[in-house]
Design goal:
mainly alpha
Length: 292
Amino acid sequence: MNLINHESVVKRMKSRLSKNSFSKWTFFALTMFVLLILGVLLYRIFSQGLGYLDLQFLQSLPSRKPENAGVYAALIGTIWLMAVVAPVSLLLGVGTAIYLEEYAKDNVITNFIKVNISNLAGVPSIVFGLLGLTIFVRAFALGTSVLAAGLTMSLLVLPVIIVASQEAIRAVPNQLREASFGIGATKWQTIVRIVLPAAIPGILTGGILALSRAIGETAPLVVLGMPLFLAFLPKTFFDSMTVLPLQIYNWTGRPQVEFHALAAAGIIVLLVLLIIMNSIAVLIRNKFQKRY
């Protein structure tokens, strides 16, 4: 029995190759278009801000005079923000993922929770800003403090960390768990010594990428009412602060051209921070992938 019509295959071969070639060059053109936009954007930022990027810019507080203005308060504020967001979001996110994947029963309620967590990852960031304003700023009376901003940004990135951690834990082969149970290990011992070490590249990669998003978000902090101009550094988690995206947003709204160049220099500092965080994620992932 002849299952393949060779004449038909030969006739259609030319059109199939043409479609394949068209798809290939279409996607190539789209990729080049995106890279071109990115290149123009980076050229614009670096050509405008690189001349203002020096040690004085990094060590100076904000000022109403462009020649004296710097990014020091915003840089320290960003570090304070990460000091709240990183532990809160990672502990809650990984803990929730462990419960959902390793302990929770596979029923309607669990599936409902998983679907809603996935949907929360796509909610606009300004909605989390309104949530943080209602709960942390007004209900808990934390005001425009480091703690209120950090908890709000933790809510923003929490769904992303949970979903990434779930995928990483789910990808661990069941044979590893069965082997651990076979030698008498408990559920918790198996999770701590087998599952988490094997899943840690995916967990940390997703976590650090989520934290990178928290560094660059502006809308939730604007909704919270965080100050755009602050000429002092926070000393406790209950002090007010500003961060790099807010500082850049403030400079871009000023009429003086010099402040626009300072905003470009601030964007370069923010890009360097993001590159450092993403590089750490890649190094950690590569290290643990070699081990497991």
